Amino acid sequence: MMDGVDAAAVMDVASAVLLLVGSVFALIAAIGVVRLPDLLSRMHAATKPQVIGLMLVVSGLALRLRDPSVLAILLFVVILQMATSVVSSHMVARASFRAGHVRKDLLVVDELSDELTDGLDHRGAP
């Protein structure tokens, strides 16, 4: 007891807040995928806020469930999500750039065009 407040109740409230904020991040990611103008912006919206939202939701679940075996599985889920979303979005972006599906007028920095014109990078989509 902390001055009349149960620690479990505080953890439950923190869990609810994390679950709600994580859900809002996932909603923002979904709206970004639908509303943003080009492929690269949509991929950014699909990966960054979605991974942060997942981390917040998993943190909320960890606070709510408080079971060590469940915590290990949740940690494994977060690690896999962080590893796979970064690699997969990078590979899809490179392949879509090579295939000509990227609007080059919206790019601020374009480091891949030089590699493609020099013939140094032959991997990925034709």
TrEMBL record:
Signal peptide: none annotated. InterPro entries: PhaG_MnhG_YufB. It comes from the Bacteria. The keyword Membrane applies. The chain crosses the membrane at residues 13-34, 71-93. Keywords: Membrane, Transmembrane, Transmembrane helix. The keyword Transmembrane helix applies. Pfam families: PhaG_MnhG_YufB. Belongs to the CPA3 antiporters (TC 2.A.63) subunit G family. This is Na+/H+ antiporter subunit G. It comes from Nocardioides daphniae. The lineage of its organism: Bacteria, Bacillati, Actinomycetota, Actinomycetes, Propionibacteriales.
